[in-house]
Design a protein that fits this description.
eight-stranded mixed beta sheet; Glutaconate Coenzyme A-transferase; 9 helices; single chain; globular; 22% strand; 253 residues
Length: 253
């Protein structure tokens, strides 16, 4: 997932990502094919290179000690992201639906009357900076474990907007960002259909298949026009990934 997500990032872009897999993907991209990728966190740490392994938080001394700039969330989210200057962001999801809407707020597990939200059965951690990223970045990539309970027809709650109810919805609400460009999962990659904005199968990993992706998706998912097998990580890509995650923290998690 980290390598597949990293391949989505381009040289010279301004990118925002959080800790964990998203940061691993970002720094992998910079080492592998995008040396001029400019990174920052929602906490305002800009242009850092991790020291002694990946950081534990968005302002950890492993990235703040050699940052180009150390400001704050108002500069990161309120200026760079909200103004549309940020090219790409990476977010996670507890639930994601066919239009790329992300839920990290709570799981209700039942259809509720419109605008009615009793306490959820499971309370999640909330959106953090993901809502800002989803609204303001020129595009964003979602990373999620591919399970049927996560990939649902419609999320219980929209914490971070994708394409809402389809093509044109983001424009109606005035979002400056372009929306989700890909969902990278444990089974493959989904991309939005250009006409409907509904996510389709773009590719699958060598250990998976379109049939398996369909099995673990809660909507009738179509095969994209150019869907294909995703190339396996090369020995060089794996070496770079392990160099970045020098402590092995993510491999152990």
């Amino acid at each position: 997932m980290a390598i597949a997500t990293g391949r989505e990032l381009r040289d010279g872009e301004l990118a925002i990502f959080g800790v964990g897999l998203s940061m691993l993907a970002g720094y992998f991209a910079r080492e592998n094919h995008a040396p001029s990728l400019r990174s920052f966190t929602e906490g305002g740490v800009f242009g850092a290179t991790p020291v002694g392994g990946l950081p534990w938080g968005i302002e950890c001394t492993r990235i703040s000690s050699n940052a180009t700039a150390f400001t704050g969330a108002i500069d990161a989210l309120g200026c760079l992201v909200a103004s549309g200057r940020c090219d790409v962001g990476i977010v996670g999801a507890a639930q994601v639906d066919k239009f790329g809407n992300v839920n990290t707020t709570g799981i209700w597990g039942e259809k509720l009357p419109k605008n009615t939200f009793p306490p959820p059965k499971t309370r999640l951690n909330g959106s953090g900076g993901a809502n800002d990223i989803a609204c303001g970045c020129k595009r964003f990539v979602i990373m999620a474990a591919h399970e049927r309970k996560r990939f649902v027809e419609r999320v219980d709650y929209i914490s971070s907007p994708g394409f809402l109810d389809g093509k044109g919805a983001r424009e109606r609400y005035g979002f400056i960002g372009g929306g989700p460009s890909a969902i990278v999962t444990t089974l493959g990659i989904l991309r939005p259909n250009p006409e409907t904005c509904e996510f389709e199968i773009s590719g699958w990993f060598s250990f998976s298949s379109p049939e398996e992706i369909r099995k673990y998706t809660g909507w009738v998912i179509r095969l994209g026009a150019e869907a294909a097998l995703i190339p396996d990580p090369s020995p060089r890509e794996l070496a770079i990934l392990r160099k970045i995650d020098i402590t092995g923290a993510l491999r152990k998690s």
